[in-house]
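Consortium newsletter contribution from the modelling node. Members have asked for a concrete example of what our holo predictions look like. Here is one, prepared for the iron/sulfur cluster complex that several groups have been discussing at recent meetings.
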Amino acid sequence: MINLTIDGRAIQAEPGKTILEVARENGIFIPYLCYHPALKPIGSCRICVVEVKPGPPRPLPACATYVAEGQEVVTASPRLTAIRQELMKLVLINHALECPICDKGGECELQELTHALGVPEVDLTAIPATSPPDYESLLVERHTDRCVTCGRCVRLCRDHVGAMAINFMQRGYFTELGSGLLPLDCEFCGSCIDICPVGALINKQFKYRARAWEVTKTEMVCPFCGGGCTYELHLKDGEIMRVYNGETALLCGRGRFGWPVLSSPERLRTPLVRVNGELKEATWEEALTAAAGGLKAVLEEAGPGALYGVGSPRATNEANYLFQKFFRAGLGTNNLDNPARLHYVKALSALGQVFGWPEVKEADGPHPKPPAYTSPFTVKEDTKGSGFTFVLGFLEELPRADAALILGADLTPELPPLGWGVNAARQKDDFKLVVANPRGTKFDRWATVSLRYKPGAERLVVAGLMKALLTAKPDLAPAVPAQGFEEFKESLKKFSLKEYASRAGVEVADLEAAAAILAQAQAPAILFGTELLSQDKGDMNALALADLFLLVGKPGTPGSALYPVADKANTRGVCELGVLPDRLPGLLPLDSPAAPAFWGDKKVAQQPGPTLLEVLDLLEQDAPEAPRALWALGGDLLRWLPNRSRTEKLLGKVKFMVVQDAFRTDTAKLADVVLPVAIHAEQEGSFISSTGRLGVLKAALTADGVLPDWQIICRLASALGVPMSYRNPAQIFAEFARQIPLYAGLAPKKAVGKTGIPAELKGTFVPFDLDISLPGRRPFTLIIGKVLQHSGSYTTHEPCGTLVVTPEGAVSLNPEDAAQLELKAGDKARVISSHGEVEAKVALDPLLPAGVAFLPEHFAQPAAQMLTLNSNLVRVSIQKA
Amino acid sequence: MILPLIKGLATTLRYCFSKPITLQYPEEKRTPYPRFRGHPELVINEDGTRRCVACTLCMVVCPSNAIRGIVPAEGPQHEKYPVQFTIDLTRCIFCGFCQEACPKAAIKLNNLYELAQYNKEVLILDIERATQKKPEMRAPDWL
Ligand code: SF4
Ligand code: SF4
Ligand code: SF4
Ligand code: SF4
Ligand code: SF4
Ligand code: FES
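And here is the predicted structure:
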């Protein structure tokens, strides 16, 4: 600790902090303009000047001067006031001063500073330098004449968003903000809007709709992806005005601009019941009676095993918990699963094999009456944690990694916060980045090594990396006790390093360079996404990465962790709350000694149910144990399961289907009863983000005709003879949190596994399959994946704000391939696989290698899963339509 | 004894022949002083457009919540203007704060003072009724 005085007050501060930071922490006011807590200081506006002794005779910028022992800082004096006022006059010299119509009015830092510094009037004149406002963009409006050239947006966009879309243009007095004469590289995240101290960058959705002081603010978690960002929802008269993040300013476009989907005309507002083969609108009473009647008939006829449940990564922890409770405690079966089976669950099972399933022993509690959404357990001295949860990364720690491997993920579209985390880590000089992807991605530009492998060759790349690591350093030993290392090394001997490289389509030297980076790193992070997990052998890919982490990872060092992408708002939560055929809430095994406590005297069934994919096989074989009825808590099965025509056919065999969803999805169209659910701020509840953060949704909007999932489940379960009644989601949270010591210390905004539980880690090397063949002979390999402006399918409904950026799904091709096929951007192409075909517009993407095409998964049309068999990779031919 | 009586009658007599200081209201109306504060109204430009930019400052400053329901909209030239604006004269206390707060000289208190009504509804002015019929500003007390 450093001792200094500010304005005569003795203060202790941490070394490495700036005077401004320390002053802010101690409630001492120093005016500032170009500084922002989320950015590195540049010390350009000089409004924050303070007198520092010992130091030079001139005042120093507080935002860019570090505290030092024995420093005496003076923050206010006539000289400082004179300097600050003079600087403010220069800032205001050409300012538009249109506060009455400026949306920033009332929350404008320039207004506040002018008042705080008592700038009387601007007695300077200058030639006017104004460029007209830029009204082009439908999301961000730019008023150059209000800009104070603080450079916050430039730094945020370049250093954190990683887009470099805004730059200073011209110099000196004429400096203004523009694209910097580069092609526009904007991600339309709108983060620059929230960091701008003035009204130079305006949120188009908010423009002229409310004044800053008229809104009521609700802090809540973003429900659009697994990033778990927290933002403020600003409402006026019960209507959403904007989404705002004043703290870090970072949000992605779908989080910031996606909320208009809530009022989409395509949303379901009344329940639907199938009458004479057609879905008809019905009241809640009628629909719930019909649903209960249909399910009861099946259950009575064929027993409790005849009903299968599909949980939802869109629904809250509370809803998913109740859902599995209905099956386990009510019906006594484990016949349920969730759509993350196709990707995230594969990562969990691989991690479980290598690091063991999570367990926490000796947590203190449960204490009575914890606050809402807080675990009743606390961490005490001898609390011990083990299992893979403790090798999973936390978002806050990612910037502390000194090396990162991004494999099989176009990181920003898959999970924007991970992209921001890597960008933050990149600000350290010694940070090294390895990017491995068949396609070129944004992060290639900062990569120390880029590996461009053949689609589907992830395992070979990882095996090659490990081979190179072990060749360079034969005595390399894992940081935690590990079994099976010798046998594992044997399994790598199947190919030589050269063979690994050539089979994966990469250079040996690159593999060696990447391996050297990982070997030298003190805190390597490994990030991977659904692109690699969605392959049919996605579990093998995850296994390879878990093995790699066991070999090079430094568990326990902040930042060194595995970061698998859980793509939707609650993909991680739906799994952790036990909507899996073989795991109970808290990821406990069915035979866990803690299991009997779960539902009172009702025993937990020991027989795991079939997985979602096995259910389809059972239906195909007309097996007697195939389900007769399906209750889907969302999750548009037709859109997300591979081989859509097969799924459609097999779901047709299900006698009775109840679907809860917010939209009339293709799966809902097959259902017998469709129950419309509340989403976003229409309901309360909690989510667990991809990196384990507990986010809480607040019910700030009125639900117009729809009901929250948990209420629907309570009513339907009660009608089926499994009485359930809860006052609110917080009560449900309290119920399951009592069963889950893993969540000890968990509270809103805290992360699972990051609550101070000391972890005892050990691992087992598990060999993985090295066969990467992709069936078929068609010329192109099509990758089905995610695009930045969409998350799941919600954002594809009008009037979602991001639709103005990416209105439809196009098949991307390398320009040369396209030229050979005589296709231009915008042409219609037929994409044909052996299972189906779709028609899609063509987009050209020079970042795609020859022979590889890309199609986004989000849209109803083109329906990407028409083409697939059992993986997100498929061989296709492409023709002009 | 008689003297005060004569004095009084003399005064009466004098007033009989001087100009009366009362008005024959309502046949005759008084012209208020220039700074008289009548009810607030929205000022229009020479071309008939309202000066108001819907900044809501008048609504914020109004101590008796007489101004409400200002609904802003964006015009073709990206200008901001109100599409709804309510002045509730049953609440207005004629303090003139709105006039003082308005950065665009778009609201002013006129010199109308005959506001007694049997029907309260008449006193709740919508944007059309709150707007001046012809452009008029009273220079001395403006800004
Ligand atoms: S940026 Fe601030 S000072 Fe400038 S016009 Fe807008 S509100 Fe007024
Ligand atoms: S919207 Fe996002 S990507 Fe675009 S300029 Fe602003 S910060 Fe950069
Ligand atoms: S646009 Fe805003 S954030 Fe960017 S330099 Fe100008 S004032 Fe600063
Ligand atoms: S990154 Fe995900 S959680 Fe964050 S704002 Fe975007 S959609 Fe929401
Ligand atoms: S203060 Fe003036 S410009 Fe603002 S809303 Fe009131 S009348 Fe309109
Ligand atoms: S805030 Fe310190 S120089 Fe601008």
